[in-house]
Amino acid sequence: MTIGEWATGLRYRYVPDHVVGEVLGRKWVDNVVPITLLAAVVIYLTATIPNFISLGNLSDISRQIGEFGLIVIGMTVVMIAGGIDLSVGSNFALANVTALALLNVARWPVAASVVATLGVGALAGLVNGLLIGFLKLRAFLTTLVILTLVRAIVEFLLQIYSVRIASSDVEAPAWDFLGAGSVLGAPVSVIALAAVALAAQVALTRLRIGWRIMAVGGSRRAAYNAGIPVPATVCLTYVVSGVLTSLAGVLYAARLSGAGPDTGLGLELNVVTAALLGGNSVGGGRGSVGKALMGAVIVSLLTNGLVRLGLESGASSMVVGLVLLFAIGIDVRWSKWRHRLRAKVYVSPAYLKLPPAPKFIAGASSPYAINDRLRDVEIIGMKEVDGPEDVILDEDGHLYCGVRHGEIVRFLAPDHVRREVYAHVGGRPLGMAFDRAGALVVCIAGMGLYRVDRDRKAQKLTAETNRSPLSIIDDSRMRLADDLDIAPDGKIYFSEATVRYGFEEWVVDALEGRGNGRIICYDPATSSTRTVLRNLLFANGVCVAHDNKSVLFAETWGCRVSRYWLEGPKAGRVEPVISDLPGYPDNINRGSGGAYWVALAGTRTPSYDLAMTMPGFRRRMARRVAADEWLFPNVNIGCVVHFDESGEILETLWDAEGENHPAITSMREHRGYLYLGGVTNNRIGRLKLADADPNWTGPRSYWGATP
Asked: Is residue 370 domain-resident?
């Protein structure tokens, strides 16, 4: 290794470029700007205003934040659905007048007054929702008109009831508690805000209605095509906004017990500013309750600080307007800039130098020399299957494979001519294995590990594992579980090729050449899942050894097969079995006579091996060249390698012309035959093995007698 190669290896090993892309992909990055702004506002106001953080001032501000935050949450719900509600200021004033009139003039009980006021808010929101959701009027203009109409109604009511409201003095402990009470030191308005925020967060992230609101905000046409009732969903968001605004009006009325013509004036500007400043999108489809609360705190502190600094109302409005302009700019530019930068840095090639490839040209003395052993294999199910990535046979000789359409197909013994859909599992079924009870356990890309029992009912076993302590991305969720095997104690060991990319993005992981794969263990006895090995180069192919003391696994981009010891003096250790394969290993399975088979999905090429030592070149290629023109690993020549316990190569089977099986990803030995599958093939192959045990089967090798 030259000094340059040594330095390049150190640079890409200890400088994790991909971390930048992973950080930019996290949702919490949206909150960096508002958090920074919040900290700046607090520091400035604390340094400028005496006793700004005193207990009394914080108590007063918290009550205002509680009321203001409720309106901001309502506005956020509307904005997530792609709308806007400019009528919140007038609705807030209407709620204030209604609550005071019902309580002080009509002498209604407190509970009845509160419920009726919320009903008035819901009615105002319903009017907005009907006009915007069902009549499809523009939200900006419609709510602006409603703002004017409701403000006129408020002024009319004040002319009639303002004097009577001001002169009335109703003794109602419950009403006083709403305005000035506290629970464990927290004002009632803050308690109400916390309860509403929790309910809204659960609804938006865990309930169907929340997903519908997000979908409608993302694309109303797509939501409609998906069967979502778009008009009703939009209408509901305005009703929610009306109710929460009225609740804030009730708390405000209880706190001040007064009504005036200036109540709620300009409130809509502050509310929109808070919603946008927290990081919620003005275009819909993106936002959260946490962001709404953060924006509410920033605007409340800023408004309170401006008042205490002695700024006139006009100057305060100007400052808030400038903050709104800043928030809109951040919403548009920060999002675009972040996604553009992430697209440039997320794919982060690493330095990967492989051992020299053994010679495998025809006639070479190497055990890998190309031959035509697979040229005349028998074809099963020609054009009847699409992408049989893995194949497996039960003790009765029935042949199973997973196909691209999310189905497991079975070809019936003995001639494998009759075909049926054994089970529909969804996703992309990949590696398979039979357990002791005869159920079929399947790795499904993007979904995790599933079990199909003999009644053909599919059951999810696991889709998550323990998260890496220092991982920035959430690597607990499984993206690409691809092969598995089952130990005698029932534990299932399976590989996940990459934690960064999905099934259709395997070539990106190949370009990156980084250890994104892992081996995971699922224990059915405890229903627990844990990661056994990390940082593997596209972990692919898992096989429990014949002695059941270790697990063999393949690393596709590492071109090697290794052993992980389960028990004995080497328990927990990894050691190489074959470290210099001429191609990219995929599934590994047992064979008769204590041997093993491994499929090579493609062969190594000098150009690609060289490119893997040039991460800068691959980085520039990923940025400047269209994905379909990248330098790809060669996956056009199929090969199967037969090896023993020590890693010695017994034989290789090639399809030199790539006609029968251009990319072999799996093989199974069964009663003297070798069955072949390929993720890009439209057939299954069968080859007679001259020296194989004609009575050997996979299920019997694992479980003895027929389950």
From this structure: no
Is residue 356 scored above 80 in pLDDT? yes
Counted domains in the chain: 2
Q: What is the DSSP letter of 412?
A: P
Is residue 520 within 8 Å of residue 529, measured between CB atoms?
Answer: yes
H-state helical runs in 257-380:
267-277, 289-308, 313-345
Residue where the block lists tokens 């039979």:
434
Say how far residue 506 (Cα) sits from the centre of its chain: 18
Alpha-helical segments (H) within 412-528: 506-512
Cβ atoms of residues 678 and 609 within 8 Å: no
322 and 398, same domain (yes or no): no
CATH of the domain at 189: 1.10.3470
In angstroms, the CA 427 to CA 403 distance is 10
Can you give the pLDDT at residue 331? 61
11 lies in a domain?
A: no
- 365 inside domain: no
Q: Which domain holds residue 276?
A: 20-343
Helix (H, G, I), strand (E, B) or coil at 611: helix
Q: Is the pLDDT of residue 154 over 90?
A: yes
CATH number at residue 578: 2.120.10.30
Give the tens place of pLDDT for each residue, 521-536. Answer: 999 999 999 999 999 9
Provide the 3-class DSSP secondary structure of residue 429: strand
Largest CA distance in the chain: 108
Last residue of a domain, one of 343, 367, 390: 343
429-464 confidence digits (pLDDT tens):
999 999 999 999 999 999 999 999 999 999 999 999
